[in-house]
Design brief:
- The protein has 677 residues and is an alpha+beta fold.
- The protein contains 16 helices and 29 strands.
- A 4-stranded antiparallel β-sheet has the order 8-9-10-11, with no helix packed on it. It has a 4-stranded antiparallel β-sheet with strand order 12-13-14-15, with no helix packed on it. A 4-stranded antiparallel β-sheet has the order 16-17-18-19.
- The radius of gyration is 32 Å and the shape is globular.
- The model is unreliable at 1-17, 194-211 and 584-592 (pLDDT under 50).
Length: 677
């Protein structure tokens, strides 16, 4: 009958499929691919038992148990593989409409990652969150030692974990390095994909362990005398060439004048001979002058522990940098905190001039603040989109008329070195340039818009003016020239909002921090290449700073910790915590720390680089010793407590800076609710 015929057909189909499967396994075995044959056989057996072939939960459980049982020597790097694999297992279940299984997987293993990836875990439960979009459109870059990579691949093959193998092949850029397993925690970074992302991907996979680093001339900006000597040398050298050209012309047109005597012969010949003698004498004087200038330039060059210097006289900004250096030195910012001849204060026990913004709630809350380089003026940005400025000296210290123009909360402020100009970034996506020299000229001079009105989180003037940086919701760091309304550089690489930025002291590099928990060092001179990717924080980066000697970068995050890296090697060399203790798995960020208001909002190195000050939501200014002698070599970090702590009553610290005499300046907003508690 019909049912019998269907049964016969089914039996034949099953027999044919079994024969084909056996043929595939036999073929792989004959080719020597025994591990692959075992994986296919295991999958076929799983299917014959009625089990789903896409059992992500089961495969991840095997990986999790294996990593937990591995040796501590290997566990540091293997742990870095777990979260990206876990995230893609959850996403795969969600994409196949198996939401209950995805939630069960999240609930079962979320506790393993809660301290490090609190925000990402919450984002996995939101279908269109920023992290989910980034994970689906980008790849995780990860650097593994050869030994760890071999152990991982052997385990996946032996266990027949085809799904996890597919995730590693499709969603990872793994760099296998010839080195011992890392002793410090590493992270997989989300990096862009596409034809132009190869260099960035390679850097991302190797920066944390110091492999494959591009060279950096991290020496600081030379003194103005060097620029002055170079300018004078160029002038003398041009005169020397003009004189030599005149000598060559006489040799060519009047060869007899070379041998003629200045006292004998006809008048025309005597005149030519005299002129030639004078020109030769001038050439000798010019050669001696050039030699003296060369010696002066060597004397003003890098000395002692200073690092390698960039070529300041190449095409990039040579004339601009020279002009701006003279401008900055000629219009040095005045200071109300001591004469320039005063002695340097002890950076570890400084005098701190602190300004508190009261009644900030009347302006929608004080969101950002900055004190001018000399401490003469204080600017604050508010939630009502206004900017208010106060004077700290003179008889008139009342609040000036607010600067109005932004259409959203003012997130960041930065003073021009001359104190005449102020730039602001706000939630409306605009950066505005203000003239704040006096009341009559308090006005917006220019608006620098962003595409799609992406909010601006951070702005920073160049140390000598004219150029400035901005970063925001579009995940890009932008470099602007104040005389143009479009960016002259756009640095792309972060996978989330850019929340902090600063300039390297030698003006050739820029540092940015992001919600993606990384910092990137960018080269201004070329195509905006990311030369360093610094990892270590387990919470969003909120502030960053570079030491005066240009060698060290520091960053503060939402967990209250401050980490320091050696820029030349990209290794983390210091971990500063408020209490000098590891609060969870080596000082990793926790949701409890974030909720307790431990976020670090401001960082500042002392002018001699001996101290690092930090402040934030916990209403305290802490100072750590930051000399190279106290830094480690990057192999194992020991949390270091501050050497000095100053508490405010109820003022969160929004801005910190040192004067050139090591006096600490700070600004914060008064928090009435903190007083009530």
């Amino acid at each position: 009958d019909g049912s019998g015929r269907r049964g016969v057909a089914k039996s034949k189909g099953t027999s044919g499929a079994s024969s084909m499967e056996k043929a595939i396994v036999d073929y792989l075995t004959r080719r020597g691919l025994t591990q692959e044959a075992k994986m296919v056989a295991a999958s076929l057996e799983q299917a014959s038992q009625g089990k789903p072939l896409d059992d992500f939960a089961s495969e991840y459980r095997k990986l999790h148990d294996w990593v937990c049982a591995s040796l501590d020597l290997y566990k540091t790097e293997l742990v870095a593989v777990c979260f990206p694999v876990f995230a893609h297992c959850v996403l795969a279940l969600q994409d196949s409409d198996r939401g209950e299984e995805a939630d069960a997987l999240l609930d079962a293993y979320a506790s393993d990652f809660r301290g490090q990836f609190h925000e990402e875990l919450n984002a996995l439960r939101i279908a269109d969150s920023e992290f989910v979009r980034a994970a689906k459109s980008r790849r995780f870059a990860l650097a593994l030692s050869g030994q760890i990579h071999a152990l991982l691949t052997d385990f996946l093959r032996a266990q027949g974990l085809l799904l996890l193998t597919g995730i590693l092949n499709a969603r990872f850029d793994i760099s296998v390095q010839d080195r011992p397993p890392s002793k410090v925690p590493i992270r997989a970074l989300l990096v862009p994909t596409g034809p132009n992302s190869g260099a960035v991907n390679g850097d991302a996979a190797s920066h944390h362990v110091g492999g494959g680093l591009l060279g950096i001339e991290w020496g600081t900006l030379p003194p103005a005398a060097l620029f002055k000597a170079r300018k004078e040398r160029d002038r003398v050298l041009a005169e020397y060439h003009r004189t030599q050209a005149r000598v060559d012309e006489i040799h060519r047109t009047n060869p007899d004048a070379v041998a003629a005597s200045a006292a004998e012969g006809n008048g025309q010949q005597n005149a030519a001979a005299k002129q030639l003698l004078e020109l030769n004498s001038r050439l000798e004087r010019l050669r001696a002058h050039i030699g003296a200038l060369d010696e002066a330039m060597k004397a003003e060059g890098p000395r002692g522990a200073d690092g390698p210097l960039p070529d300041y006289f190449a095409d990039y900004g040579a004339a601009m940098v020279e002009r701006l250096v003279y401008q900055a030195l000629g219009g040095r910012a005045s200071s109300v905190w001591g004469a320039a001849t005063a002695q340097l204060a002890d950076p570890l026990k400084p005098t701190c001039a602190f300004a508190t913004i009261l009644n900030g709630a009347g302006g929608g809350g004080c969101i950002s603040a900055a004190m001018s380089p000399g401490g003469v003026q204080v600017a604050a940005g508010f939630g009502d989109s206004g900017i208010r400025i106060w004077q700290t000296e003179g008889a008139d210290q009342a609040e000036k008329d607010p600067l109005i123009g932004h259409g959203g909360c003012v997130h960041s402020l930065s003073w021009h070195p001359s104190q005449r100009f102020l730039i602001s970034g706000a939630a409306d996506g605009d950066v505005r340039l203000w003239n704040v020299k006096d009341d009559a000229t308090h006005r917006c001079l220019c608006i620098y818009p962003s595409l799609r009105n992406n909010p601006i989180h951070t702005v920073a003037w160049n140390p000598v003016g004219h150029f400035f940086l901005s970063g925001g919701r579009d995940s890009m760091l932008k470099m602007w020239s104040s005389d143009r309304v479009f960016p002259v550089r756009m640095m792309v690489g972060h996978s989330s909002d850019v929340t902090a930025c600063t300039w390297h002291p030698n003006l050739n590099y820029m540092l940015s921090g992001s919600f993606d928990k990384t910092l990137r060092l960018w080269d201004v001179r070329g195509k905006g290449t990311a030369l360093r990717i610094l990892t270590g924080h387990f919470g969003p980066v909120l502030c960053c700073a570079i030491s005066p000697n240009g060698q060290f970068a520091a960053a503060g995050a939402t967990d209250g910790s401050v980490r320091v890296w050696d820029i030349s090697t990209a290794k983390e060399v210091a971990l500063f915590t408020p209490d000098g203790q590891c609060n969870n798995h080596g000082g990793r960020a926790t949701a409890a720390a974030n909720a307790a208001g431990m976020a670090t909002y401001a960082l500042a190195f002392s002018c001699d680089g001996a101290a690092l000050a930090a402040g934030g939501a916990d209403c305290a200014v802490r100072i750590w010793e930051a000399s190279p002698d106290v830094f480690g070599n990057g192999d194992r970090l020991v949390p270091t407590p501050p050497v000095h702590t100053s508490h405010t009553k109820a003022t969160s610290i929004l801005s910190l800076s040192y004067t050139d005499r090591n006096l600490l300046l700070g600004v914060g907003g008064f928090m009435a609710d903190r007083m009530l508690t």
